From TrEMBL:
It comes from the Bacteria. Belongs to the UPF0047 family. InterPro entries: UPF0047_YjbQ-like, YjbQ-like_sf. It comes from Parapedobacter luteus. It holds the Pfam family YjbQ. SUPFAM superfamilies: YjbQ-like. This is Secondary thiamine-phosphate synthase enzyme.
Length: 164
């Protein structure tokens, strides 16, 4: 054994002995198909959590949720007061109105191009820490499906979690 390695191990021993316990990283992935919902902001936290039973014995990890669409999005925000959802919808409808004469992409309906813009503004994914087998959301945080189309149809999410 090289002298530098032995010296490192001797110095490290009192500090690192608790760190030398290794667990194998686990990965979980599942697609979730959400039923069609009307335009608006919909809490989907429980639907996500119901799919995460394989992570209940994990101490720590990350959960990434990705929506496979261009006219809907995901976000995390307050889950208690339903007026938050209404205010989101009102704000985004004012910020990105339908029937704007500058839109060129309008052959799928007046709500389509605004839906693409809103989805780009909100984002297609959320990432949440996992702590002691559960999503480590704050007390008032919930996961939202942001449906930006009047008739968007079912929505596919890919849930990927990795942890120990």
């Amino acid at each position: 054994m090289p002298a530098c390695r032995k010296e490192y191990e001797n110095k490290c021993q009192p500090y690192c002995k608790d760190i030398l316990i290794f667990r194998t990283m686990e990965i979980f992935q599942q697609q979730l198909i959400l039923p069609a919902r009307p335009r608006g902001f919909h809490l989907i936290t429980k639907e996500i959590e119901e799919r995460l039973s394989p992570i209940t014995d994990w101490r720590s990890g990350i959960c990434h949720i990705f929506i496979k669409h261009t006219s809907a999005s995901l976000t995390i925000n307050e889950n208690a007061d339903p007026t938050v959802r209404m205010d989101f919808e009102t704000y985004f409808n004012k910020a990105v109105p339908e029937n704007d004469p500058d839109y060129r992409h309008d052959y799928e309906g007046a709500d389509d191009m605004p839906a693409h813009i809103k989805a780009s503004m909100m984002g297609v994914s959320v990432t949440i820490p996992i702590e002691n087998g559960r999503l480590a959301l704050g007390t008032w945080q919930g996961i939202y499906l942001c449906e930006h189309r009047n008739h968007g149809g079912s929505r596919r999410l890919m849930i990927t979690a990795w942890g120990i």
